[in-house]
Amino acid sequence: METNYLRTFMVVLESGSMSEAARRLDLTPAAVAQQMRVLERDFGVPLLRRSGRTVSQTEGGHRLAERARVLLAELATMRTVVGDGEGTLELTVGATNTMLNGPLPTVLEALVQEHPAARIVVRTGLTSELYDEVLRGRLDVAMCLHPAFVLPKTLHWLLLREEPLVVLAPQAWAQRDPHELLRDEALIRYDRRLGGGQAAERYLRRAGIVPRERFEISSLAAIAMLVGRGVGVSIAPDAATAWWPTLPVARLPLPHSSEARRFGMIWPRTSPRTRAIEVLVDHARRVMADRER
Q1: 232 lies in which domain range?
Q2: Total domain count for the chain?
Q3: Whole-number mean pLDDT of the chain?
Q4: 231 and 155, same domain (yes or no)
Q5: Which of 32, 52, 78, 187 has the fewest CB atoms within 10 Å, i.e. the most exposed one?
Q6: Looking at the predicted structure, is the pLDDT value of residue 80 above 60?
Q7: Residue 181: which pLDDT band, with cuts at 50, 70 and 90?
Q8: Distances from the Cα of 8 to the Cα of 41, 49, 132, 277, angstroms
């Protein structure tokens, strides 16, 4: 069946006249009448009731019109989606909380400046959750930590930044010893369910420091804000001054070596959206390079 015939049928119903439908569609009245006869033959029932120069729908025509309206709308949507596939960037991106409150907004801002029609859906989660979603094809790409294991060869990995542990303290305490701060001041702990929080806990144990805990929070942005307000100190990956440089927070290097947190991007080696993924990855690489400079 020609879907154009269904469109003609809907125009006939809207105009109430085959001659008027012909004028709107730039067809001859005979061509419109022929299309209506073909539809009636295909469906095996009368669709139109003729009365002089006007027409109205039969019961069968009414049922067809209800379904044709939905079908034609869906076809229009399909044409838009398929037709835009080569020209419009569409991605579903996963991001950890730190990425969402750190580099991702800057990356998205840079991307839409060059691709204003881009359509991006962002989902948040832990690194382990985002990794699984990429493997299952539910995410096109994820900005997260490197998982604590070797990645399969089916995935790409781009390292964007390494962040060693530092002590975050109010600017007024910038000259104090970092271990002294961790022993004497209230600790705003980075969530121990997260890799950075676990690394901080291992460092405190190795240094023999038993902190006076006040909060345990999974957001580095929230931790940096609280430190800046003098609520306490923290030991966390060095992200606060990179993404929130205006906060009155001092970052103090630790006396002993610590584990560096590595974050970057994971995406499949084969994907129908490879071109769009590569555009996003390129913008992320440039944003991070500018930030490091």
Answers
A1: 165-259
A2: 3
A3: 88
A4: no
A5: 52
A6: no
A7: very high
A8: 15, 16, 48, 41
Which tokens go with 109?
């801002």
Taking every pair of Cα atoms in the chain, the longest distance, rounded to a whole number of angstroms, is 98
Amino acid code (one letter) for 237: P
Q: Is there a single domain that holds both residue 193 and residue 58?
A: no
Q: Are 161 and 190 in contact (CB under 8 A)?
A: no
Instruction: Clarify whether residues 149 and 177 are in a common domain.
Output: no
Cα separation, 33 vs 207, in Å, equals 89
Nearest to 97 by CA among 120, 139, 130: 130
Q: How far apart are CA 159 and CA 132, in angstroms?
A: 19
The half-sphere exposure of 2 on its side-chain side, counting CA atoms within 13 A, is: 14
Tokens matching residue 94: 């996963």
Q: 267-270: long-range contacts (C-beta < 8 A, 24 or more apart)?
A: 267/134, 267/140, 267/141, 267/142, 267/155, 267/156, 268/134, 268/137, 268/140, 268/154, 268/155, 268/156, 269/153, 269/154, 269/155, 269/156, 270/154
Contact 125, 147 (CB under 8 A): no
- Which residues are within 8 A (CB) of 105 and not within 5 positions of it... i.e. 6 or more apart? none
Rounded to two decimals, the pTM is: 0.60
Token pair belonging to 211: 């902190």
Domain harbouring 244, CATH code: 3.40.190.10
For residues 157 and 169, state if they share a domain: no
Q: Do the strands 119-124 and 54-57 form a parallel or antiparallel pair, or are they unpaired?
A: unpaired
Statement to judge: residues 185 and 241 lie in one domain: yes
Q: Is the pLDDT at 266 greater than 90, yes or no?
A: yes
CA dihedral over 211, 212, 216, 222, signed as positive or negative: negative
Task: Tell me if 68 sits within 8 A of 6, measured CB to CB.
Answer: yes
Q: What are the CA-CA distances from residue 210 to residues 95, 173, 190 (Å)?
A: 32, 20, 15
| Residue 245 and residue 169 share a domain | yes
Query: Regarding beta strands 212-217 and 119-124, do their DSSP bridges make them parallel or antiparallel, or are they unpaired?
Result: unpaired
Q: Judge contact between 81 and 26, C-beta under 8 A.
A: no
pLDDT of 139 reads: 93
End-to-end, the C-alpha distance of the chain in Å comes to 62
